Amino acid sequence: MPTSQRDGADARSLLVRLDRFSHLPEARALRDRVRDRLRARPGDTVVDVGCGGGRATAELAAAGARAVGVDLDPAMLDAARAAHPGTDFRHGDAYRLPLDDGSAHGYRAEKVYHSLDDPARALAEAHRVLAPGGRLVLLGQDWDAYMVDSDDPGTTRRIVAAYADTMPDPRAPRRQRALLAEAGFTDISVEGRVVVFTDADVVGMLAGFADTAARSGAIDGERARAWTREQRSRAGEDRLFVAVPFLLVGAVRP
After folding, report:
1. What pTM did the predictor assign?
2. Running along the chain, 254 residues long, what does each successive block of 10 average in pLDDT?
3. DSSP H or E stretch at residue 209
């Protein structure tokens, strides 16, 4: 999850969205695949960077790892500790992890790197805390590649691009293979998954995209409202379609 602090209302709203997503079968499958790629053995230390509400950290601990969840946001840490008592959650961020050099056997970061303005620095920190042979897995969506069915594809492209451009690194997964090589990692591999949404729960997210595009000037307000009305109509008629590409990028610290 993003590693920046936010106000209480924003944190609660984000926690609700993250929790809703985490219960989807596709989200569980992604977390399972990340665990498979980490290959953590019982007792291995695995750091979960930007742990948010702590679900993935707790799942790693339940599987036998010595899991350490790290987040910069105190509200996220409070929620994680309340939901998963007994799990190790610590204050820190992707650039300053509260672990000693070479002390971790695994490093995971899920939906984090799009929020970082210096991913190379974060990967250098990952390299520092991982022991030789330690594994890193990054999971994230490409925000500029969201697929949304619409009668107005031109407006859809502008809306998706405008929302993506509000982030420090919306296309982060595309660059990670090269960045990991530059950071000294080896055995770099990439695999992709697509999560499909067809129910009305996603309309709120789409409306937020359109509002952001209108505020940025990418489209005018009336076009944003018309596009949102179309998406609500599609949801009511069971014609909604949104597909989100996720990439899992793995590597080994030599």
Report:
1. 0.91
2. 46 63 86 97 98 96 98 95 97 98 98 97 98 98 97 98 97 97 98 95 95 98 98 98 97 98
3. helix 203-216
- For residue 117, give every residue at least 6 positions away whose Cβ sits within 8 Å of its Cβ, in sequence order, or none: 168, 169
* 73 burial type by CB count under 10 A (0-12 exposed, 13-18 middle, 19+ buried): buried
Q: How far apart are CA 113 and CA 126, in angstroms?
A: 12
Strands 147-148 and 242-252: antiparallel
**Cβ contact 13:39 at 8 Å:** no
Q: Would you call 9 exposed, middle or buried from its count of C-beta atoms within 10 A (0-12, 13-18, 19+)? A: exposed
The Cα 147–Cα 242 span in angstroms is 6
As to burial, measured by CB atoms within 10 angstroms (0-12 exposed, 13-18 middle, 19+ buried), residue 39 is: middle
